[in-house]
Write a structure and sequence with these properties.
The chain is low in regular secondary structure and about 260 residues long. Helix content is about 10%, strand content about 0%. It is built from three helices and two strands, in the order βαβαα. The longest helix is centred in the middle third of the chain and has 12 residues, at about 160-170.
Amino acid sequence: MTELSRYQILDLLNRPKPLWLVNIDLGDANLSGVDLNGANLHMANLNGCDLSRCDLRNASLRFASLTGAALGRGQLQSADLAGANFSSADLTGANLKWCRMQTASLRGANLTSADLSETDLTETNLEGANLRGANLTQATMQLTLLRGALLDDETRIDARWRLVIQVLNNGASGVNLVRANFNQAAMANADLRGADLSHATMLGADLSGANLKSANLSNADLRHANLHGADVTARQLADAKSIAGATLPDGTKPG
């Protein structure tokens, strides 16, 4: 990690664009409003950095660390943020449309009114994130971690992911899950006791450690689902439409 003086930072920021800032240490720096369009910040340390209102369009922040960073009203359209750590960062009103955020961590981040439409959030950690008023229209959310995420009526999100969050946060009691679409949903350790999941589709869902005691799985599609450590009986699974390719509670695959 390259640590620079303030003079060196200012010198770098005034060089011809796009900037090459791979592995740079800008922790706690005030870069509010700076033009970083197309910059390469791969594996950079931006922890606690003020990047509010910055232009980070088309920038690469792959595996960069932005814990506690301020990115409010930032422009990050089409940025590559895969594997980056935005834990507890402030992204209020940020534009993250078309970003690649696979496996990134936004745990506990403030995404109030942020635009995440058409963003790839595959296996992204959004646990405890504030998504009130955020736009997640057409976002890709396969195996996205959503426990504790906060929504409101203004949050624009596909109905199935809203349902996943509801179940993760509050359990399945009183929720109609007949024919529910939980394909590729990350529902590890979910409380699904007594749930009616008949005809539900859960292809490739992560149900590891889930409590499925007394749940109705008749005609449920559990192909390639992960049931490792789940509380579910062989009799329940026998009622399912298919468990082909699934990982069973004991870690084995169907014979």
